[in-house]
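Sample 1 of the test manifest.
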Amino acid sequence: MSLRHALLALLTAKPMTGYDLAKVFERSVDYVWHAPHSQIYPELRRMEKGGLVEAELSLRGERGTKRTYSITELGREEVRRWVAAPGPIEHSRDVERLRSTYLELADYADARRYFTAHLEHFSLWEQRWDQHARQIEALETPLIRARLASEGTGDPRAAVAYKVHTYRGLAAQARLEVEWATEGLALVDRLEAASAVDDGELLGGAAPPGAARPTRKRSRPRTGGPR
Amino acid sequence: MSLRHALLALLTAKPMTGYDLAKVFERSVDYVWHAPHSQIYPELRRMEKGGLVEAELSLRGERGTKRTYSITELGREEVRRWVAAPGPIEHSRDVERLRSTYLELADYADARRYFTAHLEHFSLWEQRWDQHARQIEALETPLIRARLASEGTGDPRAAVAYKVHTYRGLAAQARLEVEWATEGLALVDRLEAASAVDDGELLGGAAPPGAARPTRKRSRPRTGGPR
DNA sequence: ACAGCCATGTAAGTCGTTACATGATTGC
DNA sequence: GCAATCATGTAACGACTTACATGGCTGT
């Protein structure tokens, strides 16, 4: 139920509509979680029923109603409880690592594409997270300003410090991913070079000495890339 | 559909039963993904229907049937396609970071508990992943031996190298998490010290000069920890 | 005989993705 | 008038969790 707590946490800063919240999730700034509006609207309704949030209605045209949600005291308690209750940490489930475990099934060109895409993705995110950390530190985002202006949300210096620490942590993670991908590219180079040497030896007629190395078998010809 | 590909990738090493596969996922070794048997058995059936795997049946008692699955050529193609096709990297969705963003809602003792639990969790995993990388490098796990003995699975040196690189990457990630949590603990100390100083000043009667600092308001008394 | 592991499943429910669907307001 | 953005929903489907349920084999 993390979506619920993410929404409650955001609403401690200021009242927002479902649309606002979806924006924060989707295209913005507060990037540690993600959810589409199709998940957000029903969840807000459920939370309203549960008394965790309250909606202020305003009409738009004949039929449209805009619902601006604020967190209730019950909601505040719930989010406090959630932050303070650690609970066991979830299992890692990382598609990219899963894929990289089996890169030997692809050819060198594909492996390079894989690591290159990884590198580009995470160097983009490193920048985003790092910049976001700096913006929060400088109190430049609307959300952190709203949060500091709001009452009953704990020590404001702590609010800033924890967020900065979180986003810097994410940036450091991304930096590590970039390093890992760079090393991955170097690894592909080494593997390809080693394989080329073997082929040379084989062409030269001399089998590698002593090695009980299993047959290297290409189950089908490579489709692209020089070798 | 990563479960499907994880299963297919494991079956490239050797034929296994659902139980074997669940073991690999749950309590073992190949830890980059996780799935319970309740997810594995139906998925194997679906893959069998789709012709990606084949089951060899053996009877156990009157009614029991053991199904040992092997990957088919179609399955091999599917897993190769999956490894070679990068596809966009998924959004990060990290409950722990989400929580740490809002630690100001908890008290200092809870924040310390949070970072301590994080630290312990990831230092355990760092060891596991690092050890696993070393075991694969030394060809000590049954699975990597089976894989090297099997045919048509690409360059065996690459198979080892990519796995080692993956698990070392995971270990490095875990190491970073440990550092992050350690810094987090230091941060809590600093925040608490700063807050104690403020209280001292306030008790001494002198308001801090010039600062347009928002009111620090404790919405309810802290429940634990010295201050 | 009993414990522990081997072995396979079903069911209910939640969470999340993707696509479908509608309409209002604002600025050019 | 049109495009972009504001604003809110539903539906179908797939992924994942947790609990329930059953029975065989092996060693002590």
